[in-house]
Write a structure and sequence with these properties.
Length: 281
């Protein structure tokens, strides 16, 4: 029988509360470190009896802790993750892994050198709709997939440390790369700063792949309504993953055929795809 690891959580704020709840349900939450009294109080409410501390170093120095989950502000992720790896423990880091590409590479290399696990919290990769979408693509149900676009829009939560790209788009980047199974050959991104100088509130990213596939990602926290939608355009069918709809995954039997060199639209309705497992957050 595999022994349940003892995990320390750094940060029990807006998102850390979700990690605390799940780790507690798994019987793995051994310690919560948060400099804020409100964070420690939240941890006690979620996991009665859990040990709480105000200093992060307690988790790093403890010989009883096997791994650490980091849910602190994005600007602290690199430094804390490096400290955890150097302490000889595995680490789970909420997205974004770091705010500079070279820092992410450094963490990956450090984990390899230490022989430790480094995992980023790309939770959408495990969403039942995304798992089912991967099955549809792998089985050829959609035909060759040529293009994906995603919109992740809302009014808030406005950040003052990382921009909308770093805060919102990692979800979509992770899913798109997983669905395509390849890394982009070219990436461009444009954005606009309207609230905090030098910090983009709206960005549009374009990804090009050697296979000829393309993807676009539109993120904003200055949108009048919430939208979390990813559209996959296949040669035979098209699929829509709408995370704010009741029917989260819908396949549209639509394509374009050519008759005498003229494009003919084929529209044969749509089908909601049943999902197994829990749909979260």
């Amino acid at each position: 029988m595999i022994e349940t690891p003892r995990i320390a959580l750094l940060g029990c704020g807006h998102w850390g509360k979700n990690l605390a709840r799940n780790l507690h349900d798994l019987g793995a939450l051994a310690l919560v470190c948060d400099p804020a009294e409100a964070g420690r109080a939240a941890a006690t409410g979620i996991a009665p009896g859990v040990v709480t501390e105000s200093e992060f170093n307690v988790a790093l120095q403890s010989g009883d802790i096997d791994a650490v989950a980091i849910a602190t502000p994005a600007k602290t992720h690199f430094e804390l993750a490096a400290a955890v790896l150097n302490s000889g423990k595995d680490v789970f880091v909420e997205k974004p892994l770091a705010l500079q590409a070279n820092e992410g590479v450094e963490l990956s290399q450090l984990a390899g050198a230490r022989g430790r696990i480094l995992m980023v919290g790309h939770l959408l990769e495990y969403h039942p709709a995304v798992l089912r979408l991967r099955e549809l693509i792998d089985s050829g149900e959609l035909g060759d997939v040529n293009y994906i676009y995603s919109n992740r829009l809302n009014f808030g939560k406005v950040r003052t440390e990382e921009n909308a790209l770093w805060s919102f788009a990692p979800h979509d980047v992770a899913v798109i790369l997983r669905l395509f199974g390849e890394l982009p050959a070219e990436v461009t991104c444009t954005g606009g700063s309207y609230l905090t100088p030098g910090l983009a509130d709206v960005t549009v990213s374009s990804l090009g792949f050697k296979s000829g596939r393309r993807a676009h990602i539109f993120v904003s926290w200055l949108n009048p309504f919430k939208e979390q939608k990813l559209v996959v355009m296949g040669e035979r069918r098209m699929a829509v993953f709408n995370d704010v709809a009741e029917d989260k995954l819908v396949v549209h039997d639509q394509r374009v055929d050519f008759e005498d060199a003229m494009p003919v639209l084929q529209k044969n309705g749509h089908q909601s795809i049943s999902l197994s497992g829990d749909v979260y957050p």
